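Can anyone check this?
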Amino acid sequence: MTSVSIGASVQIQSQVPIGRMFVLADEYPAYEDSFSPELFSNIFSLAKTSTPSRTKALCYSTVGGLGGPTMSASAAQAGLILDILTRGDQLPADLSEYACVVTVDDGAFTSNELNTLTAYYQDIGSLALFFGLGVSISLNPIIGLIGITSDGTTDPITPSISVSSQNPYFNGVTSLTYLNGNVFTETLPTANCILTYDWPPVYKIAYSS
């Protein structure tokens, strides 16, 4: 195992095995009043398939109360019990009991949070990162692992988008509620864009590992 320090104190470790990562440029499909049950059913089911012995999922968010009945129901359909933590609560240092960790945020992540989430991902955990305003730059150390970055710029897309993607994350998803998502830049040729939207220009709004 090797580790590289990124920024002040974020340690990005290089090791095998590695987990799943799903990144969406906007957080609206995770809100209770604009929730995408098909998307979250896919997120939780893919995570459960990767780690069948794990029975729980975690929603970790700056939005109080997020992870309500609809998200809990999607997790239950995949055989997972959803725990909910509002950021400001202590993120457990060990996330290995969770098949999936969902973050939905408008605030910057701390180096301790980044280290914990990165260690979880690199230990076959499944991350689903929904980007709000103000969060993108702080998550660059994690999304950089799959070859993308953000400078905090937002796109003008509103209020919803049609979805046409063959990726398993979007199985059965035909549209998403969406409002001014973050703009991503690809830093590695291996970056795997799984959803674009032609405004114009064409915005790349979802990636997976």
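Reply from J.R.: I decoded it. The radius of gyration is 16 Å.
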